[in-house]
Design brief:
Elements lengths: L33 H23 L4 E2 L2 E2 L32 H13 L2 H12 L28 H21 L13 H18 L2 H8 L9 H14 L2 H23 L10
Antiparallel strand pairs: 1-2
Helix pairs in contact: 1-3, 1-8, 2-4, 4-5, 5-8, 6-7
This protein binds FE2/S2 (inorganic) cluster.
Length: 273
């Protein structure tokens, strides 16, 4: 008599002949679906918001603040800005939003990030949906084949993320000027930029590639005390990589939203001094 727990007859994937013959898809009794559901909702919200803002090509500069989505300016079609670096290396032929020239680097960095990979593999591809929950796919090649083998370029995106963080640091320093470019200003926007840049650096330096760069390929830490110290600091940040990934994702979106609200006239930047 059928009990409803017999293994399915498809002998592929987690139901392959070499795997334990467990009928149910999982034996978990907790709300295992909650984390992937929240992850998917959070990432979708960011994708929708950042796509809108990247293509908007408007309201990204309100002196002295320049949106992190649009800095540095690499094309001539940027609005005139005296905050933030202007390296118009793409000249006048670029007719699309200048944000598209910049966002490829932070986007590539996050897309190939070890944490985000786990997050969107689970959230969007259910591969697997959660620990100890069988995935629906019948084949698994990991990241050994095209296109996922390209995830290995993450370390190069880490190198690209460093100057991006440096430029956003420069923009934050310039946020201490007022709208007439006189030093000594501090508004709510300056504070928003400060929090954002701290989180951006914390996320960038907590990268697993960074940890390997500062502390990897060593036989004896005792012979490399400086690298050991750096590795300890990066390791402490690395332990919070997931939290920093989310915090910096929200902070960079919020910094952009803040500039949008001020630039569009929906909000006045309160000044502290
Ligand atoms: S592993 Fe997440 S940024 Fe490098």
């Amino acid at each position: 008599m059928a009990t409803g727990t017999e293994p399915p007859q498809i002998h592929k994937g987690v139901h392959g002949r070499t795997r334990a013959a467990i009928g149910p898809r999982h034996l978990r009794t907790d709300r295992w679906w909650l984390a992937p559901a929240l992850t998917t909702a959070g990432l979708l919200a960011f994708i929708v918001y950042s796509t809108w803002r990247a293509f908007a090509n408007a309201d990204y500069y309100a002196a002295p603040y320049v949106s992190p989505f649009y800095s540095p300016c690499l094309a001539e079609n940027c609005v005139p800005m005296r905050a933030g670096p202007n390296w118009e290396i793409f000249g006048s032929w670029w007719g699309l939003s200048p944000a598209l020239l910049i966002l490829i680097f932070p986007l590539g960095f996050r897309l190939t990030c070890y944490y985000y990979r786990k997050a969107y593999y689970r959230g969007f591809w259910a591969s697997p949906p959660a620990c100890a929950v069988a995935e629906p796919h019948t084949k698994y090649s990991g990241e050994t084949r095209f296109p996922l083998i390209l995830q290995n370029i993450h370390r190069y995106f880490f190198y690209a993320a460093l100057p991006v963080a440096g430029i956003l640091t420069y923009d934050t320093v310039l946020a201490f000027r007022d709208e007439h470019y006189t030093w000594g200003h501090m508004g709510l926007g300056t504070l928003v930029f400060l929090v954002n840049i701290v989180l951006i650096w914390a996320y960038t330096l907590s990268c697993h590639s960074c940890r390997h760069i500062v502390g990897g390929r060593l036989r004896h830490f005792s012979k490399h005390p400086v690298r050991y110290r750096l590795w300890s600091w990066v390791g402490a940040l690395n332990a919070r990589h997931m939290q920093l990934a989310w915090a910096s994702l929200f902070s960079v979106a919020f910094a952009d939203l803040y500039v949008y609200l001020v630039a569009s006239g929906a909000f006045d930047d309160p000044r502290f001094f």
